Amino acid sequence: MSTPLKDAVRGRPLPTIAETVIEVRDLTKRYGRNIVHQHLDFDVRRGEIVAVVGGSGSGKTTLVRQILGLERQSSGTIKLFGEDTSTLDGNTALMMRSRMGMLFQHGALFSSLNVFDNVAQPLRELGKIPDELLRDIVMLKLEMVGLPCKHASKMPAALSGGMVKRVGIARAIALEPEMLFLDEPTAGLDPQASDEFVELISTLHRALGLTVVMVTHDLDTMVALSTRVAVLADRKVLVAAPVEEAAGVDHPFIREYFLGLRGRRALQALPPDRRAKLPPAALEPAPAEIHL
Ligand SMILES: Nc1ncnc2c1ncn2[C@@H]1O[C@H](COP(=O)(O)OP(=O)(O)OP(=O)(O)O)[C@@H](O)[C@H]1O
Ligand SMILES: [Mg+2]
Fold first, then answer.
1. In this structure, which ligand is nearest to the CA of 60?
2. Where is the ABC transporter domain (predicted)?
3. Mean pLDDT of the chain, nearest integer
4. What is the residue extent of each domain of the chain?
């Protein structure tokens, strides 16, 4: 799908990978006797797209929620833009939140609000914005995610899964954040809608110089988008590296996830220079899926 923004950023270089913007050190998170994270370290630099993968229940959503300040760590430090989040006063924490946009795993939109009001909601929370300005900002965000204005008055129930995700992204970027967090953004989308979503994130990444942290089970999305992949296993980040390197780490989850049929098929779609760095087991034939 061609959009004005996509055309405008075509050929633009990728954002430069710069200073560390997320620094998680020796993080422990417990729910009662359930230890979700233990001695977990995690870094993200400005301009990166980091995919977070791991088994169900490995703590991916919990990690993102702690980084966003929606959940408190049991111990350890989280620094955002160089500042320790545990020492921020209320106002600074609020400012920090506005620098980060989020697309949640479940309930991407408020079902009782139409598209316009969903996207306007974070702006309205900021305070009084003149109606005309609000309208312009919302319409601009909808255009940026490739949604024609005519959908603005629709209710979420009247949208396709792919459109719901687009509106969710429009809302997440309403306050022009520097970082975007996505939790299973392509779950439930058909392959075409997933591909379009990958295009959209790639376009926004270039256009806005965004830093993206994306939780995903979807190997194709991960391979197509991520500059690095962080693998959550054994309560910590086992490895955080370009996917061709992460795939070579000797661990049962990595063998199963990256070197199974689907994993190999996704990895073999890497460009030749990166494919050359894959472990030999990833290069074994991965026949295309047969649909009977
Ligand atoms: N609010 C909570 N109270 C108690 N336990 C929780 C809470 N939130 C998460 N957990 C537990 O923490 C662990 C990690 O959950 P989390 O939702 O972060 O996993 P996930 O990796 O995102 O899984 P999925 O792939 O299924 O989304 C699970 O054992 C879960 O039961
Ligand atoms: Mg989750």
1. 1
2. 22-259
3. 92
4. 4-12+20-99+177-277
* Ligand 1 site-directed mutation target among 31, 182, 186, most atoms within 8 Å of CB: 31
Which stretch of DSSP H or E encloses residue 77?
A: strand 75-80
Closest ligand 1 atom to 58 CA: 21
Query: CATH number of 4-12+20-99+177-277: 3.40.640.10, 2.60.40.790, 2.102.10.10, 3.40.50.300?
Result: 3.40.50.300
CB neighbours (10 Å) of residue 131? 9
pLDDT value at position 85? 94
pLDDT tens string 232-289: 999 999 999 999 999 999 999 999 999 999 999 999 999 999 999 999 999 998 777 6
Please, where are the H alpha helices in 15-83? 60-67
List pLDDT tens digits, range 50-84: 999 999 999 999 999 999 999 999 999 999 999 99
Mutation test residue for ligand 1: of 27, 34, 36, the one with most atoms within 8 Å of CB = 36
